[in-house]
Amino acid sequence: MKFADPKNDLAFKKIFGDKNHKNILISFLNSVLDFKENRVIVDVELTNPYQVPKIPELKETILDIKATNKSGENFIVEMQKKDIGDFTKRSLYYTSKAYVAQLPKGQDYTRLKKVYFIGILNFTIFESKDYISRHLIINQETNTQDLEDFEFSFIELPKFNKQLNELETILDKWIYFLKNAADLEIVPNEYEKNKEFQDAFEIVKQTSWDIKELEIYEYIALKEFDELNALKTAEKKGIVKGIEQGAMQEKFEIAKNLLDILDVEIIAQKTGLSIEQIKNMKQD
Q1: Beta-ladder partners of 67
Q2: Are strands 61-68 and 43-46 parallel, antiparallel or unpaired?
Q3: Which of these three, 154, 175, 204, is where a domain ends?
Q4: Is residue 80 included in any domain, yes or no?
């Protein structure tokens, strides 16, 4: 049996962004956030649910979620496979943007609800050995959380090294699933008693996908492979390390050679050119 890689943009959206399988997302969110009984999520509303026609335009996998609990809070879930730098700043940007978007012009600030950001990363960004970390705004003098409306959870997949027989919690099982499902041939016994996991494995079973979905999945996988090779080639040639010392014309030449391989954002990150400059090059 062949399972799709849950880290692939399309597969991730199919698993967690399907309004017909909200039980999967609810289980995942509750396991990551470990809410107490009075705040457990019982329903979710997806502002950008999975739809095949939209996938080719997808440059990153972000789910904006309105969850139903006693507080009616907001959640952002992102799967990021490539380290293109400044991910922490990016998470702050998305979270603050979601926070501001709650408040129509002229409305009372008391209407603002807490926003949670959950980043699932296929690379590491923190020095801690823990695969999951929680980040709050803390008062340095009193060590209390006086500003409660932003909360960040980061899951660094490379740091998760548990084997099947070591999985103890629902969260352990979700992280193992995300990291290893593509390498499995059957659904492990450890997952058989939980409907959410059964549904998730059924979704990533590629024999149930239509031709369009399989084509998009393969396209995304190949694109990621090409991007990785392009970056490795650039590093070997000294392009990445020496780019800041290069002349402006050299930067434009390098960016031009990467236009058909990398996304605009990644080219900007590696060359120092602005996104607008690179977009103008694509139009020329």
Answers
A1: 44
A2: antiparallel
A3: 204
A4: yes
List pLDDT tens digits, range 132-154: 999 999 999 999 999 989 999 99
Q: Examine residue 89 and state whether it is found in any structural domain, yes or no.
A: yes
3-state secondary structure of 281: helix
Q: Which amino acid is at 255?
A: A
Quote the domain boundaries for residue 225: 213-283
pTM for this predicted structure: 0.76
Residues 160, 176: contact at Cβ < 8 Å? Answer: yes
- In this predicted structure, the answer to whether residue 242 has a pLDDT above a threshold of 80 is no
| Same domain, yes or no: 277 and 230 | yes
Same domain, 179 and 157: yes
Whether 140 maps to a domain, the answer reads yes
**Domain-embedded: residue 1:** no
Nearest to 77 by CA among 20, 25, 149, 123: 25
Section 172-188 average pLDDT: 95
pLDDT tens digits for range 190-238:
998 899 999 999 999 988 888 888 888 888 887 776 666 666 665 555 5
**Mind listing the pLDDT tens digit for each residue in 12-61?**
988 998 888 999 999 999 999 988 776 788 888 887 777 654 554 455 56
Distance CA 194, CA 264 (A): 41
Domain stops at, among 184, 204, 224: 204
Specify whether 69 is located in the same domain as 161: yes
CB 32 within 8 A of CB 203: no
Looking at the fold, whether 130 and 195 belong to one and the same domain comes out as yes
Residues 41 and 125 occupy one common structural domain: yes
Nearest to 57, CA basis, from 178, 219, 209, 211: 219
Q: Encode 216-234 in three state secondary structure.
A: HHHHHHHHHHHHHHHHHHH
> What b/e string do you get for 175-193 counting C-beta neighbours within 10 Å, with b at 16 or more?
bbbbbbbeebeebbeebee
